């Protein structure tokens, strides 16, 4: 039987890593066979592409090149890691996936959904997640949580606007695909969030 494919999405600082760690511990404790992976990356070639993408020295990269590299890393990652694990019936949990490209490249960079959907057609048509957990925390709330409420206005405005557009992108996709998305209020405590993640994943027959 083919395994289930679950992705986690959200803005920077939304608490995704904490949830992934809690889920990893839970699955190990329950003895549920699973594979954790991340994008961009998750394999030799896709990690090499990650290094190009996240290297500060490549700041002159065009938005189009960036989007294509994310899509290229994704195809390789699906081939190397995701597809084999799903074929073995394992649960695959991926930290970020194609919805990040829709939020960051299509929406925040402004490349548009058509372009980003087209270059990600392989992933969208063959490996659409069974469930996508969206930790819903606005960039302003994420920043407040990290640095305290008073410092909010010291944020660099262009940076903040970019992250707001990322959030809008996630919000739009989550609204457009309510059956696939599990939206969880990220302002709650990690434990509250985790309990809701588990309930929702069970409801979607992913656990
Ligand atoms: P990472 O350090 O893994 O960040 P996080 O812990 O927030 O996931 O870096 C991944 C960065 O890549 C993150 O800023 C989001 C971005 N990204 C895209 O812009 N498009 C994509 O398709 C993916 C998968 C990630």
Which residues form runs of ≥5 with pLDDT under 50?
none
Compute the number of strand runs.
5
Bound molecules: thymidine-5'-diphosphate
Shape: globular
Please provide the ordered H/E string of secondary-structure elements: EHEHHEHHHEHHEH
Cα-atom radius of gyration:
17 Å
Strand content: 5-15%
Secondary structure elements and pairings:
Layout: E1 5-9, H1 16-30, E2 34-38, H2 44-54, H3 63-87, E3 91-95, H4 98-108, H5 113-119, H6 121-126, E4 131-136, H7 139-147, H8 157-176, E5 181-185, H9 190-203
Parallel strand pairs: 1-3, 1-4, 2-3, 4-5
Helix pairs in contact: 1-9, 2-3, 3-4, 4-5, 4-8
Compact overview of the structure:
The protein is of the alpha/beta class. Helices cover 57% and strands 13% of the residues.
List keywords for this structure.
alpha/beta; 207 residues; 5 strands; 13% strand
Task: Describe the protein in words.
It is a single chain. The protein has 207 residues and is of the alpha/beta class. 57% of the residues lie in helices and 13% in strands. It contains nine helices and five strands. Strands 2-3-1-4-5 form a five-stranded parallel sheet, with helices on both faces. The longest helix is centred in the middle third of the chain and has 25 residues. It is globular and about 45 Å long. The structure holds thymidine-5'-diphosphate. Thymidine-5'-diphosphate binds next to helix 4.
